[in-house]
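Hi D.,

Good news: the full-assembly prediction came through. Inputs first.
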Amino acid sequence: MLAYLWIVPLLPLLGAAINGLFGAKWPNKYVTLTAISSTGLSFLCALEVVREFFKSGQALFHKQYFDWIVIPNLVSGGNLFRAGFDLQMDQLTVVMVLVVTGVGWLIHIYATGYMAHEGGYYRFFSYLNLFMFFMLILVLAANYVLLFVGWEGVGLSSYLLIGFYFLKKSASDAGKKAFIVNRIGDFGFMLGMFLLFRAFHTLDFQTLFDAQHAAGWSVESFGQFGTLTIACLLLFMGATGKSAQLPLYVWLPDAMEGPTPVSALIHAATMVTAGVYVVARSHVLFTHSETALIVVGTVGCATAFFAATIGLVQTDIKKVLAYSTVSQLGYMFLACGVGAFTAGIFHLMTHAFFKALLFLAAGSVIHAMGGEQEMPKMGGLRKKIKWTYATMFIATLAITGIPPLAGFFSKDSILFEAYRREGGRHSLYVVGLLTALLTSFYMFRLIFLTFSGKSRYDEKKVHVHESPGSMLGPLVVLAIFSVIGGWFALPTFFERPDYFANFLAPVFGGAHEVVDAATEAASHQLELILAGVAVGAALIGIAVAYWLYINKPKKADDLATSMKPAYTTLLNKYYIDELYAFLVVRPLLWLSTNVFWKAVDVAGIDGTVNGIAHGTAAIGDGVRHSQSGNTRSYAVWVVAGAIVVLAVIFFWPGAGKVVLGLVR
Amino acid sequence: MVPTNYYVILSAVLFCLGVFAFIFKRNVITIFMSIELMLNAVNLAFVAFSQALGKLDGQVFVLFVIVVAAAEAAVGLGIIILIARNRQTLNVERVDLLKL
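Then the structure:
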């Protein structure tokens, strides 16, 4: 089965094809069956593959299936370049594949309930399966080129699904925005690939990241811009696009126009983590460049804080979660930036559980409210939708970092690594900690506004009802994982082996150095203190949220009025969209309209083409008058022609040969 | 023995007369006759060269030209009769349906 790794991505592709081709005429239950079984089977296959991978005991399984792009070296044999359909399996892939198929399957099940009354049911599941296919290609790919196929494919599926309600202008606009903003990042990603190929003549992970190969590289210290640094920065540019980091994060909040299961699967749990995955996958490159690591860490940290502050004041329940996602992705990059790739991937995994759960629960709330997304129009839902409330509360505790839930362990390990590895400056740690406080505040603000207090909706109009079992089931499963998901990697002060770090050690290898006993004891103590500080920050955030939204509900509005400039700035997301519109979009539009459209296209290209046509027509129009219909004038032309021919023959002796030469 | 030049010059003069008649006359039948005149001018040149060079090729060509001229006369006169019937005129300036 391990050799048949390709079945794992193929099943969702089959599902997408079947639903896309035949689903339109089928009743919903067949579409459901196809979608659920294809992803479910894919998950089972993934489990089996992973089991066999562990049983075989190898560090890396790699198989070439067929050639895709091959440039043979005609001089000395061999290939100058080969990009094949090669899949690989290592511990990092195991984590990603299980998260993608597992969470993806749960979200498919959820979506059958959520989308039951929507038009385009088959189209939705066809796209969603297509997304699963591309995402699996992305994580299973054994070279950058194939990874890029998945990378672009998930971008395409994301575009299709954001614009699912394409009759709504805001939705189709959001889809286009996501696609175009991602294109900027992809541009960098491609340049990075080209640079890597020029430098190393291969884009295969196995050859490129080979330990002996990498041992020859010198570490480029801060400020040095060698090949590795520039390649890493370009790859990271792609990652900022896909993973919604500064400055390319703007598409993700708008992407909430898509149906909620899409937000959960693509824009929270899987696709947006692709950037983190690429950075972790390329860790061999990144660890050789201090500049790139510092950039990754700083961008991640800045994004985490920046997005969290915007999340404080948003009123749309999905927008809060969107900014929270951006912020948590920032955490993952922060971890990668300080070299703690294990912590980053660990947070990726736990985040996939609790953020998917948060989105699905939010979807359940929206479902219960009959489509309402504004939190000021909710309130007091706790009693009415108990299951949704319970699961969402668990997810909120998890993202806030309350022990012993998943988020606590992953966030704690990121903050600990940031503190330990940053070399005494601690600026990343402080901002990270502050972000943790903000996170707990805005998450509990969401909970309190939605579920507590008095209801602020028209109870006669809105019939609040609990969601069907197909939606609650995935919620409960994800809630369980949000609780236990973190137990794989206990902090070292529990005196237990860190299973997750040991598990990923074959991939990240030296990234986790062994320290001697004395520093280890000190580090245990340090970690304990830092964990305490982090939990303290989370509790402060909860307390403030409780005080503002439960204890003194008026206080929040007072605060908003008293700090109006700050509040409106946050509410308008720092005017970043307006800034981009002013700095990029409008100049580009002006340039495109006035230069490329009106000057180059209309005047230049069309002018030349149409000019030739008009010129020809004008000449024809002039010459046409010689066709008078008068036989005798034709005869004059014939005679004139004969005279010319005779004159040439008489006065230019060589003419006959020239004419014959031309004819031949 | 009359020199070949004379025949050739006579042929050229007849041909030019035919051309000018073709261009300046309006009556279709006259134009038709001028065409015949040009053909016969060419025939004269052929025969003259055939005699001068002592070869029969030119005379063979003349026979061909006469045959073609006869055929052309048959078709051409048929057309002229049709034009005269349909338009009650033989003036070529009034037969100009081919103009744009």
